[in-house]
Amino acid sequence: MGRTGDRLLQHRHPWNLPFVEADKLSRVDLCFDAADPMLPALLLILGLCIGSNSVGAASVSRDDPESADPGRAVISTAAGQAVVVTANPRASQAAVATLKTGGSAVDALVSAQAVLSVVEPQSSGLAGGSFLLHWDAGQRRLEVLDGREVAPLNSRPDDLLRPTGEPLPWKEATSRLESIGVPGTVALLWDAHQQHGRLPWATTLQPAIRLARDGFRPSPRLRRSITIAQRIGIWHSPAFQAQYLPGGQPPPADQLFRNPALARTLELLARDGGPSFYKGALAQQILAGIDALQAAQPGFRGWSPADLAEYTVVRRTPLCHTLLSYRLCTVPPPSSGGLAVLQTLALLNQSWALSGPTDPDTWRQLARAQAWADADRLYWVHDPVDGAIPTGPLLDPAYIKARAAALQSSPTALPAPGLPPGLAAYPYALPDQSREQGTTHLVIVDAHGNIASYTSSVETVFGSRHLLAGMVLNNQLTDFAFRPSINGQPVANRRRPGRRPVSSMAPLIVFEKGQPLLAVGSPGGRSIPHILSRVLLASLVWREPPARAVGLPHLSARREGLVLEQEPPLPWPVGFNQLTSGDQPLRRQRLGSGTALLQRINDRWHGAADPRREGMALSAD
Description:
- The structure is a single chain.
- By secondary structure, the chain is of the alpha+beta class.
- It has one domain (17-64, 76-616).
- It has helices at 39-42, 47-50, 89-100, 105-119, 170-175, 185-196, 201-214, 220-232, 238-244, 260-272, 276-279, 281-294, 305-309, 337-351, 360-380, 391-394, 397-409, 528-541, 546-551, and strands at residues 77-80, 83-86, 129-136, 141-147, 314-316, 319-323, 326-330, 438-445, 451-459, 467-468, 471-472, 485-486, 489-490, 508-512, 515-521, 555-558, 561-565, 586-589, 596-601, 604-609, 616-619.
- The longest helix is centred in the middle third of the chain and has 21 residues, at 360-380.
């Protein structure tokens, strides 16, 4: 893969910080590094790391999603002409049932997302945002639908700052009404269904309506997530407490759990269609609910009817890049995740001859490439409405070659954003680090070859923890930089009315000789590009089958050190002591990915669900 770089006898890493012996880390150390300047804020959620109770809450860090579950021993797989992989068995079953009754990949997507809103509300829902990468096999057309949340018209750049100008603590910010963006998921689902659906819209919502109305037994992961939300903070939301903590405890695992308010919302959507969320009776209910919440936070400036009525799904040109014999396509800004995946793999292709997973050099180079790609995407990406983003120059072969050379010549340097071709100066301030958390991903291929690769999110675990009409309200506007400017220089991803915050979501479809070969995506917050670059490396370079591609260990390059997955589904093929030279902090912790992967092998699609969550792959054949 690419040219062979000079092998470094002294394997050093771009984090010039003291080494921490992983085997001696306490449970707290597994989540936080004592040298991290964000430690005071992180201590606010210390209970996420050190607490335990009957539902077994897992540890959470600022870079990792919701909870890192212990996972399953068996990796769910399926093969056929029409295959579904989602994060929850009920969502997969609903999607497959939709396909079997003649539905398209988009019909199945609507069914699956509606069900996830009921059974996996900690990760995604009707009041969140989404990105869809869709392949129309008949038209041979690839398109992106951007259903990312939007800042309300009354938003101000300093909405998440204290009067002193200091950023609000993250925990506090996630619960504030200013963190809630105008949702885009319903608009995206409706728009996609109007163009690509075969079944009636109301039909696709029936499985979710039944589950919300009649009930289901909550999964261990849902119950763990409720406890984590409780620790982050739910005092501000009586509605959350009433729905998800009846009697002060998560719903019992052996009893049916219902959400009648969400059932009524879904029934309204089934009857009146997606536009009712933005202009009809449901929109009026949402605005009235926001007004009621405003009474408890008087400084909040509220939403206007125009915030909902003017929401628009944006069709964007996919961001594609050729590597080896493959064409990798993903969603463009305002998501930065796809750009980071493409850059990471391009840097690897340029800088190193990668052997298999048993070579420690491969893993070391992957970590370096992740860090250098992050430096670019976290600096340059913003809402495209504010001007062009140099995605082409950032993937230009000459630029990648220069970045790869710098990576190799300065292995201990903290990577900084590069200056791509055509730009003479850096226009923005270097932003603070951000967080993304509650997210889900699914992939679907139907019998006609249409493909949906779709990532959806409400942000933190259960979003803002505010509920309205049974829906979890997102807190995606915490994805904007809290500080809109630094030393008088603007930050690219600053908050302003009508803007969409930068995301790490990165649904991908890989083509070979013009035909779809692979569809993939994952939750994982800011680690999404790290997870997916490793999965694609396994699939496309190491030639691992889908189950092994999702089950092999992850690593994540962070500014405070290198995180290695603890207790991965498949064992590490190299020793931990081979991945550090002793001069970098190294942590071992669970990483809560939830990869959904489809790969075409011998004219059949093979799906695999990440065993780190409760996902399931099913065939409709």
